[in-house]
Amino acid sequence: MVKEFSLDLLSNEKNQVTLLLDVCGEALKKESKPIVLFGAGGIGQFYLSILKRLDNLREIYFCDNNSNKWGQVIDGVPVISFNELNKKYRECYIIVTSLAFYHDLRMQLEEKGLKPLLDLSIHSVITDDIHFYDAFQNYKKFISDHLTEFSTVYRRLEDEFSRRVYIDRLNYCITLNTKYLAPLKSVSSQYFERGIVSISDNEIFIDGGGYTGDTVDEFIKQTDGKFSTIYSFEPEISKHMEFQKKVKGYKNVHLIDKGLWSNSTVLKFNALGSGSSNVDKNGDILINVTSIDEFLQESPVTFIKMDIEGVELEALKGAEQSIKKYRPKLAICVYHKPEDIIEIPLYLNEIVPTYKFYLRHYNYGGSETVLYAIPSEVTC
């Protein structure tokens, strides 16, 4: 019997962004010393965007081991070397701001008798945009306000591990502490979870969010090159030359230079040159989008994957008739927006009530949480 979902299952820890502001703010009140962010990459710049909210922040520096950055000014903040940190700023407040080199930087500080001000688990995995994290600041209240919906999704998850992923995904959203997610990281290939997704030799696969062709490449490996058709949708896919080279020898792989949406139209798009490019009303370019239903024109589909930066629900609405008629396997990202983890499964449950739902996570940080919807007649 599935245990009932309740707020008692969730963490009472302080949000890590709030903790950062509280600790640094209190430290600066006691003694106004410089803050040094050890790591001048994207995560360091994200921490800086948080700390700029402090009224009593007077002096701040980046420190980095990359000599090419020494002497540079990033977002108004000078970059110093570790040698300069060790000589001039030993008494400052140090915060390690690197994910990949976190432990190495900690050891480097310890060897010189330097200690960070605090340990945090905020990692800018999803986006460096502070507004994303603002959306999660009152996430426990959001859960409380939508307790019925969260409870319904929890009960609909098919296995105990999915329910564990669900709870600890919510705990991450409440605290932004990656300790909740790291133990959940799946060893299977993303979108092709062993024991959940079964692949046949005649799959008709829709890849929503083709990016550089990484998913298509993995799909071809999973099928050993035996499949019916692949349609990969990606705005400005013509710029991904490597993707085109990868699939050049396959006549049944079609690269579609459009995004997915609920209907065919033109939208503004933020081309960030990375996997986080997205639809944005203030975007810098226009893109063509289409719906799966309009594209397929009632042709069949057996498997749909979507990682389309927060517009998954809109695109699923544009695939409603195809999903109802053909009941394809679905692998849908549910981490871009706070509400995705309830709205997407609830919508799919409404249009195909017999889908079996599973949740898996594929990253040590906050991104790459995937909802699988598997037709009840499919067995692995």
Any idea of the CATH topology of the largest domain?
Rossmann fold
Number of domains: 2
Q: What CATH architecture of the largest domain would you give?
A: 3-Layer(aba) Sandwich
Strand content: 15-25%
| pLDDT < 50 runs, ≥5 residues | 124-129
CATH superfamily of the largest domain: Vaccinia Virus protein VP39
Helix content: 25-40%
Q: What gross morphology would you assign? A: globular
Could you tell me how far the N terminus lies from the C terminus, measured between alpha carbons in angstroms? 23 Å
Quick check: average pLDDT? 90
Question: What features would you highlight for this structure?
Answer:
14 helices; five-stranded mixed β-sheet; Rossmann fold; 380 residues; 2 domains; 16 strands; 18% strand; alpha/beta
Would you spell out the secondary-structure blueprint of this structure?
Elements (H helix, E strand, L loop, with lengths): L15 H15 L4 E4 L3 H10 L8 E4 L9 E2 L2 E4 L1 H7 L4 E4 L5 H10 L18 H6 L3 H7 L1 H10 L3 H16 L28 E5 L5 H10 L5 E5 L7 H6 L6 E4 L2 E2 L4 E6 L7 E2 L5 E6 L1 H5 L6 E4 L5 H6 L2 H7 L2 E5 L6 H12 L4 E6 L7 E6 L6
Parallel strand pairs: 1-2, 1-5, 2-4, 6-7, 6-13, 7-8, 9-12, 13-14
Antiparallel strand pairs: 3-4, 10-11, 10-12, 14-16, 15-16
Helix pairs in contact: 7-14
